[in-house]
Design goal:
Layout (H helix, E strand, L loop, with lengths): L16 H17 L6 H14 L9 H6 L24 H26 L13 E5 L11 E10 L3 E5 L6 E4 L3 E3 L5 H11 L10 H4 L7 E2 L5 E2 L10 H8 L5
Antiparallel strand pairs: 1-2, 1-5, 2-3, 3-4, 6-7
């Protein structure tokens, strides 16, 4: 019958963009109808009938016209006057129906193709060669829960999805939009590079001039007088002064 089933990854509504957008429109219409405190299951047929008969703004065609090739009959169409002239049966109805369906489908395909071409998604170039990746957690998170989980090992990859090895789970397929490459430092390589880049230690060479006792710097006033600090602050004389001042214990 020409039906092809496609599988999508979890937490990736972009894969089912048309369905997600339809669900939002359906919920908005149900909220409007439930203003009289009725059950949503009772209002669902009326809401679906209105949505299927409403023309779209981009194609000016309704969902019924795209499916059946003609507009759906609403309840108001059943109440017609008896004096109205009956139209003669059109024997070319099947031909016109096919032409209408083909025209509607071609218009819809053109609109979808232009929308797909105008939308671009950023994809990191290192995802083509990386061995481990981080996965963005789109579920409800706590206040300080990290945004990305991982890193996880990459088993297989293609242009849209990655197959990852997650501990405690089977191989999981994740959309490429939720991934970013993991840059992990190899400890063995890091140790080798750090040891090779470290310069050899140099031994300090002490000269005979540094081994000698340093002489104090004499300060002079503007008149040329030498400033002599107290004995306790003089260089090399503090111990001698302390012994002279300190009384002997008997």
């Amino acid at each position: 019958m020409g039906i092809q089933k496609t599988r999508t990854t979890a937490y990736h509504p972009q894969s089912n963009g048309i369905i997600e957008r339809w669900h939002r429109t359906l919920k908005t219409a149900l909220k409007t109808r439930l203003s009289q405190h009725t059950k949503w299951i009772d209002e669902l047929p009326t809401v679906l009938l209105g949505l299927r008969a409403t023309p779209r703004a981009d194609t000016s065609l309704s969902a019924a016209q795209l499916t059946y090739g003609c507009s759906i009959r609403l309840p108001c169409d059943f109440f017609s006057s008896a004096a109205s002239n009956k139209q003669e049966m059109d024997y070319d109805f099947v031909t016109k129906l096919r032409e209408s369906i083909n025209k509607a489908l071609s218009l819809k395909c053109t609109e979808m193709q232009s929308h797909r071409n105008n939308k671009s998604v950023f994809i990191h170039q290192d995802l083509k060669t990386c061995k481990q990746v981080f996965v963005r957690n789109d579920a409800m998170k706590k206040q300080f829960q990290p945004t990305y989980d991982g890193p996880y090992k990459v088993l297989e990859r293609n242009s849209k999805t990655f197959k990852l090895q997650i501990p405690g789970r089977k191989s999981t397929i994740i959309s490429i939009d939720r991934l970013k490459p993991a840059y992990i430092i190899n400890e063995d390589t890091a140790e080798d590079s750090s040891s090779s880049s470290k310069p050899p230690a140099r031994k300090l060479e002490t000269s005979s001039s540094t081994s000698t006792q340093l002489k104090p710097i004499l300060k002079t006033t503007k008149y040329g007088r030498v400033v002599k600090p107290p004995v306790r602050f003089r260089w090399g004389e503090s111990d001698v002064a302390a012994r002279l001042i300190k009384p002997k214990r008997e």
